[in-house]
Design a protein that fits this description.
The structure holds three protein chains of three kinds.
Chain A: H1 2-5, H2 7-26, H3 32-51, H4 53-66, H5 68-87, H6 92-106, H7 108-130, H8 138-155, H9 160-178, H10 180-188, H11 193-214, H12 253-270, H13 272-282, H14 284-289, H15 294-321, H16 332-342, H17 347-370, H18 376-390, H19 392-413
Helix pairs in contact in A: 2-3, 3-4, 5-18, 6-7, 6-17, 7-12, 7-15, 7-16, 7-17, 8-9, 8-11, 8-15, 8-16, 9-15, 10-11, 10-15, 12-13, 12-17, 13-15, 16-17, 17-18
Chain B: H1 10-35, H2 43-61, H3 64-88, H4 93-116, E1 134-135, H5 145-149, E2 151-152, H6 154-172, H7 174-184, H8 186-191, H9 196-221, H10 234-244, H11 249-272, H12 280-283, H13 285-297
Antiparallel strand pairs in B: 1-2
Chain C: H1 3-22, E1 40-45, H2 55-70, E2 73-78, H3 85-94, E3 97-103, H4 108-117, E4 122-126, E5 139-144, H5 146-161, E6 176-181, H6 186-202, E7 207-212, H7 219-231, E8 236-240, H8 242-255, E9 258-263, E10 274-280, H9 282-294, E11 302-306, E12 313-315, H10 327-342, H11 351-354
Parallel strand pairs in C: 1-2, 1-3, 3-4, 4-5, 5-11, 6-7, 6-8, 8-9, 9-10
Antiparallel strand pairs in C: 10-12
Helix pairs in contact in C: 2-9, 3-4, 5-6, 5-10, 7-8
The chains are: A mainly alpha, B mainly alpha, C alpha/beta.
Chain lengths: 414, 318, 358
């Protein structure tokens, strides 16, 4: 077969197309979508050529199948949201037109900016889930990451290529160590991590205020609820410097986030550590039987989850705000839970669910601005989507009923 | 400067009760819920729903008692979403609770805009439940304890009674026994012919009623209007109280009092500038206490065995 | 094809039709077409802004007044999180708004950023200080001398709490007044410093308490702070805390003492308890700014300071307390206003200037 020899070539082209396309697209250069589509098309063609005709078709089908529940959930939630709007006197068609035009086109850059921190917290929650843990306190680790990033960003005067990775690393490690006590308690006393990390999140939320005031202008400064701006050398690179036509606010944080998602996926599927994590998450006793150290893995998993959530805070401080505000938490930790659940804890899926959440948030603001429809409808739609998609048992339930009915019918015919 | 001594007075204790009442109510509700085996982190959301409907009903009928009823019922009905999701559809309890909290913010804000034309706060209700404060003759004359416990407002009295009732219900009644069994040994309960589903539905519903009552307290007894940020984390403090109280009604009550005291103390420290400590140090107190409790400092702080454990009955060919 | 796949395909088609509907106008602006001919004036508020019955609602009222008089298309958007500031302000400009208002101190940086990127739109920030040396020419800060309002309110409180305490049952003999603060931001501090100075100008021995609650939305906290001060003998509570302050007024009302409202006339919250309100003319400032822009006289690149000489600071009428407040107090209020107007008295703008440690 001649074609298999070309495998490296095909893959290089596909990856390059996808990569450049994505970067362009995320930088709000919309022609990037063409490159992404070309990459996908090429992949299907190559797959068909090597595996035979039926293969690419079945690949497409399995792809469609995996979209089944998400699509049903999102579409039904939108329909229900539309009905609610209709009943309460808003025009759902105008509202949705604004919502999606805003989220996907007009304010796409905002959607991307919203998605980046969510990917990190989503990954954090998803990774912990894989180990059978519920990191409900990602919000707290976010604060730790943000506070540390601000502190280092204010004082760390070095070339960006050196300082930024160090800030990410240090803030990540400190955020990870913020999960040290919950992890220790989980392993030693069995204290449930939902309780401990949630309590730690509340503690971080309030203590961060003290640090923020400490890093602000002092009593004579502009006001005590925001820190001073970080050094310009510690800002994340703006997409505009790569693509002049990009929105000036979008920074490379989204690419770091996606890179992190791929890295987490790699760890989970290709390394021994990932295998052990998943084994522990599926069945602790069986894992123990295989000689896996359960406690050690749980410990590391919680710490790594903290590490990932910490990145979210760093991303916001270095990339977007360049300072830290008090009492203005956007709830990335909570939303991180949502996006992880929606993606069934699949790291790659988290990228897409975060984008969906980002689009809904950005589009919601656009909608309320242009057609003056309350954007709280977006919160309601989000809630419905979650219930519809996460409660997979609803489908199994309905499926059972459906099957039983068929069975009865068949028996009746007999 | 008179110092700390001037803070320690009867008023401080009255304030403690005032601040702890919503926490107590939500915490004993959570105790019943978790005793039945369903984890409930949705108290914050249910409180908001209860507070909102209580204020709206009181505003439109002019009668705070109807508001009270509306708040309680709204809390109960809203909590049924959690029950259906976790019990019937076997959704993870923490997940459902988190979603409930998200949903409640959206629902209330949407309704605010719909009914009042703006988010934020409702108009003031004509009469609040505070107007029905009454001193119990005789008892209220006891020094210190009198004004603290026997000269109170309706929902505060209710909270005292409900603590006792919950205690009796869980310990002494047959239904209470069954409900606890649903949280400890669901399979055993099912074998003696009692529906675990029913017990768990009951647990969630009752906790919804109580969280709704806690919300009503915030909006129509302690205040005279509903404000969006009203619950301000009290649902989570209630969770902390329940855990620190070792999943028992009396423990939750004591923990809630303790947290209320810390809050009341904190405000007074600020008024008098006794010590220049950031108020946050006091605000985080309940959360630190909870971590210490689950860390083993409170010996009996262990959840029911089947708490958060899904229970599914396989019905063959049903 | 299996059933599952069929369903997926159907759902995908539905969603595509849906998307088609959404973009039916060829992705044109989703703004309502009927309004297009009118001048658009936009306003973006802070998180949890609208419906506070004071600051934000006062700003919005200015927009509505302008709508009634000039027939503009008034649009308001509330930020859901702090990252929405810039997109909302920029977005309003991109939607074709002629003037865009940022309501609230915390939106300062976002306002400058949006203004720099939309040089053809006029921007105005309420309570936002615009640095004339750095700011672009299309942005204007609308500032108020809150200290003057606080000062006059302080004169009322300082006299009523002791000297004229017999005027109402709600006042006691203790020489104590209290303030409930929201977040400790400059406009709040200006009110606080002015109030303190006002009290001290007529009643040097008065004890002035204050509590920073750190939030503008927690009624229970405001109530608790007010009650803690009432326990110490405070009989007049000045609230500077938005929604939190509603709890403080409520506490004063229930405890049988008096309160002073903030930003707008808050008498309606508790007519029996609210003596008066320390007001600032946000509504008027917004209205005047719109008017100026429509007439082509908008001046950017600096700040417009509204004070007592523009009749934009001071106190509201006494409403239900009009018959209770003694004539001597009213005379003292008038004197304080005159002194401020003539410059004979300058109200301190910070705690430091006022010599107050609170």
């Amino acid at each position: 077969m001649q074609i298999t020899k070309l495998k490296p070539l095909f893959y290089t082209i596909i990856v390059l197309l996808a990569l450049v396309g994505s970067v362009m697209y995320f930088a709000s250069v919309f022609s990037g979508i063409l490159l992404i589509l070309a990459a996908a098309g090429l992949y299907f063609v190559y797959y068909g050529l090597t595996e035979g005709k039926g293969a690419s078709k079945s690949l497409a089908l399995s792809f469609l199948k995996s979209l089944l529940i998400p699509v049903i959930g999102v579409v039904s939630a939108l329909l229900i949201g539309g009905i609610i709007m209709g009943i309460t006197g808003y025009n759902p068609v105008t509202a949705y037109k604004a919502l999606f035009y805003g989220g996907l086109v007009k304010n796409w850059s905002v959607s991307v900016l919203n998605a980046a921190p969510l990917i990190f917290t989503g990954l954090s929650v998803a990774f912990a889930f894989k180990a059978g843990l519920f990191n409900i306190g990602a919000e707290g680790q976010y604060y730790v990451g943000a506070v540390v990033a601000t502190f280092l960003g204010l004082h760390f005067n070095m070339p960006p290529l050196l300082s930024i990775p160090i800030i990410f690393l240090v803030a990540g490690l400190l955020a990870a160590s913020y999960n040290y006590i919950p992890a220790l308690l989980k392993v030693k006393t069995g204290a449930h991590e939902v309780i401990t990390t949630m309590m730690f999140a509340q503690i971080a939320r309030y203590l961060s205020s003290i640090f923020i005031r400490g890093m602000g202008g002092g009593s004579d400064g502009p006001h005590p609820y925001v820190t001073d701006p970080i050094l310009k050398s510690n800002w994340l690179l703006k997409m505009k410097t790569i693509f002049p036509s990009a929105n000036y606010r979008v920074h490379i944080g989204i690419l770091i986030a996606i890179g992190m998602a791929l890295f987490v996926q790699y760890i989970l599927t290709r390394t021994k550590f990932g295998f052990e994590i998943r084994a522990v998450g599926q069945n602790k006793d069986a894992a123990r039987g295989q000689g896996i150290k359960v406690g050690r893995n749980i410990f590391i998993a919680l710490l790594f989850a903290g590490f990932l959530a910490g990145f979210s805070g760093v991303n916001q401080v270095l990339g977007l705000d360049h300072k830290l505000y008090e009492n203005l938490n956007a709830g990335y930790g909570w939303d991180g839970i949502s996006v992880a659940l929606l993606a069934s804890n699949n790291p790659i899926g988290v990228i897409f669910t975060s984008l969906l959440w980002g689009i809904l948030a950005a589009g919601g603001q656009y909608m309320s601005r242009t057609v003056q429809t309350p954007n709280s409808i977006v919160e309601i739609i989000k809630g419905i989507i979650l219930f519809l998609i996460v409660a997979k048992y609803i489908y199994i339930h309905i499926g059972h009923k459906f099957k039983n009915k068929k069975k009865e019918e068949r028996e009746a015919v007999k | 400067m008179s110092g700390i001594a001037s803070i320690l007075n009867t008023d401080l204790l009255v304030a403690t009760i005032r601040l702890s009442t919503p926490i107590t109510l939500a915490a004993i509700g959570a105790t019943i819920c978790e005793r039945s085996g369903i984890v409930n982190i949705a108290m914050e959301g249910i409180m908001i729903i209860g507070a909102f409907f209580a204020a709206v009903a009181a505003l439109f009928t002019g009668n705070p008692w109807i508001g009270l009823l509306a708040g309680v019922v709204a809390g109960g009905i809203f909590s049924l979403i959690h029950a259906v999701a976790t019990i019937t559809f076997h959704l993870d309890h923490v997940v459902s609770g988190a979603v409930m909290n998200i949903l409640s913010f959206g629902i209330v804000r949407y309704l605010m805009v719909m009914i009042f034309g703006h988010p934020g706060t409702t108009d003031a209700i004509p009469v609040g439940l505070k107007a029905y404060q009454f001193a119990i003759p005789g008892l209220s004359k006891i020094p210190v304890l009198g004004p603290v416990f026997f000269n109170q407002t309706p929902i505060v009295y209710m909270s005292f009674v409900l603590v006792v009732l919950t205690l009796i219900f869980l310990k002494k009644t047959k239904t209470g026994l069954h409900l606890r069994a649903a949280g400890e040994h669901p399979l055993a309960l099912e074998t003696i012919g009692v529906s675990v589903y029913k017990m768990r539905y009951l647990g969630v519903f009752v906790s919804g009623l109580l969280s709704g009552l806690a919300g009503a307290y915030l909006s129509i007894e302690n205040s005279v209007s509903f404000t969006e940020g009203m619950a301000n984390g009290r649902g989570f403090i209630a969770l902390a109280a329940m855990i620190s109280g070792g999943w028992t009604a009396i423990g939750s009550f004591v923990a809630a009092l303790f947290f209320g005291f810390a809050d009341a103390f904190q405000v007074r420290m600020q008024v008098f500038k006794v010590l220049n400590i950031p108020s946050e140090i006091f605000i985080i107190f309940p959360y630190v206490a909870t971590v210490l409790a689950v860390a083993g400092l409170v010996k009996k702080s262990r959840p029911p065995k089947a708490d958060g454990v899904d229970f599914m009955i396989e019905k063959e060919g049903a | 094809m299996s059933k599952v796949t069929k369903i997926t395909v159907v759902m995908l088609v539905i969603s595509m039709v849906f998307a088609g509907l959404v973009f039916a106008n060829g992705g044109s602006e989703a703004a309502p077409a009927a309004e297009k001919s009118k001048v658009i004036i936009g306003m973006a508020t802070d998180v949890g802004g609208l419906g506070d019955k004071s600051f934000n609602d006062g700003s919005y009222q200015g927009l509505l007044d302008a709508k009634a008089d000039f027939g503009i298309d008034a649009r308001v958007v509330e930020s859901k999180q702090q990252t929405d500031y810039v997109p909302n302000l920029s977005g309003l400009a991109e939607d074709g708004a002629q003037v865009v208002f940022a309501v609230g101190f915390l939106m300062g940086d976002a306002l400058i950023e949006a203004a720099e990127n939309h040089p053809d739109t006029s921007f105005a920030g309420i309570d936002i200080f615009v640095d004339p040396s750095k700011a672009p020419k299309n942005v204007e800060g609308l500032l108020f001398k809150e200290q003057e309002s606080g000062y006059v309110a302080g004169v009322v409180a300082g006299l009523l709490t002791k000297q004229y305490a017999s005027a109402s049952d709600r006042l006691n003999d203790d020489n104590v007044v209290g303030m409930v603060l929201g977040m400790d931001i400059p406009p709040v501090e200006r009110y606080q410093a002015g109030f303190y100075a006002g009290v001290k100008s007529v009643n040097p021995d008065c004890k002035v308490l204050s509590v920073v609650t750190g939030t503008f939305t927690d009624q229970a906290k405001g109530k608790e702070a007010a009650l803690a001060m009432i326990e110490q003998g405070a009989d007049i509570i000045f609230q500077i805390a938005g929604l939190t302050g509603l709890g403080a007024i409520n506490a004063a009302n229930e405890a049988g003492v008096a309160a002073i409202g903030v930003d707008v006339d808050q008498s309606a919250v508790a007519p029996d308890a609210v003596i008066t309100s320390a007001v600032k003319g946000i509504t008027r400032a917004v209205y005047l700014t719109i008017k100026a822009d429509l007439e082509g006289t908008f001046e950017g690149g600096g700040n417009k300071v509204f004070g007592i000489n523009e009749d934009t600071t001071g106190i509201s009428s006494f409403n239900k307390w009009d018959s209770i407040v003694p004539g001597d107090v009213k005379a003292a209020v008038q004197k304080a206003i005159d002194d401020l107007k003539s410059g004979k008295v300058v109200a301190p703008a910070s705690r430091k200037e006022a010599g107050y440690e609170g």
